[in-house]
Amino acid sequence: MKKSSYKYLNNIDSPADLKKLSVDELSVLCGEIRDMLIKTVSKNGGHLSPNLGTVELTVALHYVYDLPKDSLVWDVGHQAYTHKILTGRRDKMSTIRKKDGLSGFPKRSESKYDAFNVGHSSTSISAAYGIARAKSLLGDNSRTIAVIGDGALTGGLAYEGLNNAGRSPKNFTIILNDNKMSISRNVGSMAKYLTQIRIRPGYIKTKKIVEKILLHTPVIGNPIRKLLLKSKSKLRTSVYRNTIFEDLGFVYYGPVDGHDIHKLIHAFNASKNVTQGVLIHVITTKGKGYSYAENDPKSYHGVGQFDIHTGEPLSSKKGYSYVFGKTMCRLAGNDSNICVITAAMKSGTGLSQFSKKYKDRFFDVGIAEEHAVTFASGMAAQGIIPVFAVYSSFLQRSYDQIVHDAAAQKLHIVLAVDRAGIVGEDGETHQGVFDAAMLNSIPGAAVYSPCYFDELRSDLNKAVYEEKGVAAVRYPRGAEPYRPEDYTPGGACTVYGSGKAAALVTYGRLFAYAAQAKEILHEKGTDITIIKLDKIRPIPEDAVEAASKFDKVYFFEEGMEQGGIGETFYMRLRDYGFNGSYEFTGIKDKFVPQSTVSEALEDLGLDCTGMVNKILWN
């Protein structure tokens, strides 16, 4: 895109440049920012709807507050693209979500304007409050602002933060970006509560009028006002109609039109004069300014490349999530005891059809993974078979519940772990590389890791009906990978090939790369046998026994080495008296940065080239 195409945006290199514009000029700037967002995301993929909805909000924040002296913490961080554009990263937006490019989330190492790293939901209030209290201890009077939205208020951590931060210092402000959506439409009591607040926009005005009348009433007015403020009676509630946020100690202001730049600036300036913590309730429209995203914000929440003019995705291959959803419909159709749970990820986990077909057995609990697992455990205690569909990255949040509420009680719940392994452009916070090691540590847990769609269907059936305790089926993001014509699944493990040079052991999607490596090695005169694990916990005895007969064993794992399946496999080999060479390639003690999946696997030595080189040169 040529620089000359923007009248104002080309001259914004920092918030200081933004402050030189008039409020009317800011409205034009917002249109230019939306144009850049749409063009950028159409090429790079990313979070479109959330960012289109927060343009005016972000511009107003940077116009009013003194960043980076004031600290701005985002939640969920995928709403921060405009923030990046306004803080010196405009000319790098073409690199967003690409290898060595800008992150799709706030990142402290990337900019002094990013006060806290964000990737998961509901963290902003706790983090921002910690920053605010630290500033107070250090004698720093600058402000701290938490922007929470896109459904993050359905997460339990947000309420822990609210409870702790109530009656906080005057320099602490929470912006509630209420767009009625997370990824799928918000659910639960809080969503209904916010709706009730939205439909009485005269709330703050009424409070001010009552106070004004009382203050100007001779003799009795001010005493009554003070009594009302201190009272917990029904009279106070009827006059002031308090919100939950005020009951927690915040001054509540709103709702404010999140697309009216004048009103936003007025609200933010007004909050500076309040002597305690402030919560400003802002109403925005997800997908604002791009008709396709505005009419269907769910589909345009996180997108791949798309055609700007038609809104159509450039790739529409069916992936593992789709197969999972179809399989659950089939299983539930034959068994009324099967229920499905999701944590605000109905569409992302492929459950849109299930939610319509089996409404009474579909439960969206909001962004509450911990609650989802314990909720599932309660259902299991009554003989229901709950299947919790969750991204691998978000499953991390529910580790304690899996251990304490499910596994320790030997309750049968099924975890459908979507986005297992490398996910690519969303980077460190979203890579699904910890679940195998995490689940590997839980007594009694059974874990399956299919490579192909038919294996996913089979493993789901096994997890539902053949396991007794915690059972997990983990599968990657995207389309089905390369499959050898002569490959036939063999159950818990498959011995593929008959080469004597070495055994290559792996599981999940990496089998596709191993099969390609086997073909390349054959052309180079080295024949190997692949031992493919379909069930990775407990490891099948047949797999260990088969590998123990080789002098060289190579294990490749798309997950963490420490505590992973490769480590366990080696210990099991030793039980069989194995004294040969064992080479283990997984993810060492580090986080995996953003890039495409193929780039990440290549960098980690987990693609077919890495496997070939490892076997030929070791």
Q: What CATH architecture of the largest domain do you see?
A: 3-Layer(aba) Sandwich
Percent strand: 5-15%
Radius of gyration over C-alpha positions, nearest whole angstrom: 27 Å
What is the name of the CATH topology of the largest domain? Rossmann fold
Low-confidence stretches: 232-240
Provide a count of the helices.
Answer: 26
Identify the CATH class of the largest domain: Alpha Beta
Mean pLDDT: 90
Biggest sheet, in brief? Answer: 7 strands, mixed
Give me the CATH superfamily of the largest domain: Thiamin diphosphate (ThDP)-binding fold, Pyr/PP domains
Q: What is the overall shape?
A: globular
Distance between the termini: 48 Å
Q: What is the count of structural domains?
A: 4
Strand order of the largest sheet: 7-6-8-9-11-10-15
- Could you say which structural class the secondary elements and strand pairing correspond to? alpha/beta
Please provide the count of β strands: 17
Task: Provide the helix percentage.
Answer: 40-55%
Question: In a nutshell, what does this entry contain?
Answer:
Helices cover 40% and strands 15% of the residues. It has 618 residues and is an alpha/beta fold. α15 (320-334) runs parallel beside α21 (453-465).
Q: How would you describe what is shown here?
A:
The chain is α/β, with parallel strands linked by helices. It folds into four domains: 3-200 and 241-295, 3-Layer(aba) Sandwich (Rossmann fold), CATH 3.40.50; 201-240, no CATH class; 320-474, Rossmann fold, CATH 3.40.50; 493-617, Rossmann fold (3-Layer(aba) Sandwich), CATH 3.40.50. Helices cover 40% and strands 15% of the residues. It contains 26 helices and 17 strands. The chain has a seven-stranded mixed beta sheet, with helices on both faces. A five-stranded parallel beta sheet has the order 1-2-3-5-4, with helices on both faces. Helix 21 links the parallel strand 10 and strand 11 (471-474). The radius of gyration is 27 Å and the shape is globular. The two termini are 48 Å apart.
